[in-house]
Structures are given as structure tokens and as C-alpha cells.
Amino acid sequence: MPPALSRVTKYTLYRAITLFLTVVVGVYLTIVIANMGGHIDKIRIAQIREAVGARLLVDPQVQALPASEIHKRIEQQVNLESQRLGLDKPFMLRSFNYLSDALSLSLGRAEVLTSDSGSRQVRLILVERLPATLLLFATANLLLFFVAIFVGLFLSRRYGSFLDRAVVALAPVSAAPSWFYGIFLILIFAALLKVLPFGGMVSAPPPGPALLYSLSVLKHLILPVSAILIGAIFVTIYSWRTFFLIYSAEDYVEMAKAKGLSSGTIERRYILRPTLPTIITTFSLGIIGIWTGSIILEIVFNWPGVGRLLFQAIGAFDTPVIVGAVVIYAYLLALTVFLLDIAYALVDPRVKVGGEGKP
Questions:
Q1: DSSP-based three-state secondary structure for 121
Q2: For the segment 307-329, what is each residue's pLDDT rounded down to a tens digit?
Q3: Residue 357: left (phi > 0), alpha (psi -120 to 50), or beta?
Q4: Distance of alpha carbon 111 from alpha carbon 8, whole angstroms
Q5: Which one of 190, 271, 311, 314 is most buried, counting C-beta atoms within 10 A?
Q6: Does residue 180 share a domain with residue 50?
Q7: Model confidence over 230-241: pLDDT tens digits?
Q8: What is d(CA 206, CA 151) in angstroms, rounded to the nearest whole number?
Q9: Residue 76 in contact with residue 23, Cβ under 8 Å?
Q10: In this structure, what CATH number is given to the domain that contains residue 145?
Q11: Do residues 84 and 181 share a domain?
């Protein structure tokens, strides 16, 4: 294997293992917290005892038995069911079994929630909700990235203009979360103007033809994507425009201008490319912030994603679904950081992949 490819492979494996270990720790803490240190399992045992007692006490043959015998039979059934579910083992041992199941999304059946098809398999419930979340936030993040770059470059060429001052003045607007602006967007465009839907992912009933279905999804995407953009676009443009201004004042940029290079070539080679590592770093931090606010945003827009599912699971004390949703978010965050970290190493020639050499 060539040395360069070997370094890239080692670097990729190192980052993947590091992020996976971070996910493992986060998921394990979630399991302990969601189970309240084993208290939820005690509640499940109490529910099993109640269900077994209700089932046996309606049996005429059992009713004729002495109270001590009835109690003995109930305890036998409870012990059998607890052994089947593994609830008879210490919580510390069960927690590692839960961790293994959670990381592989082998979480069995949900306690309360169901999928659209009526199934209680946690994996199926999550798989149904995941595409909606990915569609919403992938669309919003891609638009945010490219709009912020183009507008930031445009403003860096027009420093001090009215539009530049307007963006600077609007930068504090991004201090509020996206769901806050989502409420106002719903009031204006759905309640007052009645031009866009209040929420959901598609019209009810869903259109039959694929084209009409896609147009309906696109129409329902407008408000939540706009809320995400309003909540992040101004401060992102302001910060990236500042980076472009700093790099455009470097000596090598002045030398490129003196050589007679076109403004487009100067922006691409001498301003945008050296700024990309900083932009990727700030963008990755922004994405993490957007992911963490996705739960409330999906609730506001009634978006059928993982965030809304997690909120429903918390309200219903559905521990398997809670853990599964957290695992999905952990994987998404780790994958995002991993891809951006690799992109950072590719766009910044000063980074020595594999740790060899000095930057």
C-alpha cells in the first residue's frame, strides 16, 4: 500500500474508532438515565405482576384456590416472565446487554408507540421516521452552506454597502432558535395568508401520482426549512463575510491582482480556498446546534421525524424507543463530524493526514 494511502487509512480508522467510542459512552449514559438506574425495570416488573394477577384472577379454577396458592401462582408467572425478559439479572449486567442491543438497534418491541403499519418493532418505527428527518435537515443545511458562501463573497466585495450593514444588523436575530421563528412563520403564512400548510410532511390524503406527491412534500418543506435558515443564515453570512474580508487583505491576494488575474479566479483560489477550513469548522458546529434543536422544530411543524418520535416516546415513557432515537441521533452526529473532519483534512493542505510531519 502506498505511504499516502496508508496514512489516510490509518487516519480514517482512528477518527472512526474515536467517534464510535464517543457514541458508546453517550448511549450508555442515556440507557442509565432513561432507565433511572434500574427504576424503570422495577416498574415493568410491577406491570407484569399486575397483568398476571388480572389474568389469573378471572380464571374460575384459580378463584377457587386458597389465597396463598393464588399468590404463589402469581409469583411463579411473574418470575417466569421476568426471566424471559432478563429482568431477574442485576441492572449493571442488564445495562451492558441493553447497550449491545441499542448499538445494533435490536431493541425489540416498543411498549406504547407503533409504526404507521401498526408494528411495535422499534427498528421499524425508527426506519419509518428517519427519512423525514434526513430530508428536512439535509435540505436546510445544504441551502445554508451554499447561500452563506455566495452571499458572504458578494458582501465581501461590497463592504460598507446598505446590504452589508443590513446583514450585520440582523446577525443577532440568529440568537433565537429556529422553532421560535417557525411559530411566527406558521401564524403569517398558514393562519393569516393561508398560502402554506400548518405542518406535516404531505397533504392529507396524500396525492397518488409521484410528481404531485413530490410537490406536496416540497410545499410542506418551505416553512420548516425557512425557519432553520432564518435561525442561522444571518450570523453565518456575517462570520463568513468577515473571514473573506480578512483573507482578501493578504499580500498574496494583492500580488494576484497585480498579475491581472480575474476577480473570479482570485476569489476561488486565493480567498475561498484558504478560508474553507475555517468555514467547515464553524459550519460543523452550527450543524450540531441545528441537530440538537430538531426535536422542538419537528413538534412545531408536526414533522413526522425522529425528533417528534423522541418527544412522543418521552411522554409515553417508552424506554426502547427513547434509547433507539438517541442512538440514531448519536450516529447522525458522529457521521456528520466524521465527514466534516475528513473534508477539513482534504481542503486544508496544512493538515498532515496520519499525523506525520509538521503542519
A1: strand
A2: 899 888 888 888 888 888 888 88
A3: left
A4: 44
A5: 271
A6: no
A7: 988 999 999 888
A8: 37
A9: no
A10: 1.10.3720.10
A11: no
Angle (CA) 216 294 240, round 5°: 95
Q: Does residue 356 lie in a domain region?
A: no
Residue 254's domain comprises 131-347
Examine residue 113 and state whether it is found in any structural domain, yes or no: no
> C-alpha 166: how far from its chain's center?
31
The pLDDT-based confidence of 193 (bands split at 50, 70, 90) is very high
Q: Which of 286, 300, 273 minimizes the C-alpha distance to 239?
A: 286
Query: Rounded to whole angstroms, how far apart are CA atoms 76 and 214?
Result: 55
Q: How many domains in the chain?
A: 2
Cell numbers that stand for 273 in this block: 480556498
Separation between Cα atoms, residue 135 and residue 120, nearest integer Å: 24
* Statement: residue 355 has pLDDT above 60: no
Residue 353 lies in a domain: no
CB 310 within 8 A of CB 253: no
Instruction: Mark whether 95 and 194 lie in a shared domain.
Output: no
Query: Could you give the CA distance from residue 84 to residue 88 in angstroms, rounded to a whole number?
Result: 9
User: What ranges in the chain are assigned the alpha helix state H?
Assistant: 3-34, 39-57, 60-63, 67-85, 91-103, 122-156, 162-170, 178-185, 210-248, 251-258, 263-266, 273-292, 294-300, 306-316, 319-347
- What CA–CA distance (Å, rounded) separates 228 from 297? 9
Is the CB of residue 297 less than 8 Å from the CB of residue 179?
Answer: yes
Angle at 277 between CA 272 and CA 279, to 5 degrees: 70
Write down the residue that cell numbers 489516510 correspond to.
8
The pTM of this model reads 0.76
Using alpha carbons, select from 128, 347, 161, 301 the residue that is nearest to residue 245: 161
> Could you tell me the three cell numbers for 50?
399486575
At residue 157 the predicted structure's pLDDT band, cuts being 50, 70 and 90, is: confident
Determine, yes or no, domain membership for 243.
yes
Q: Using one digit for the tens of pLDDT, what is the confidence trace for 328-344?
A: 888 888 888 787 777 77
Short-list 351, 352, 348, 342, CA closest to 274: 348
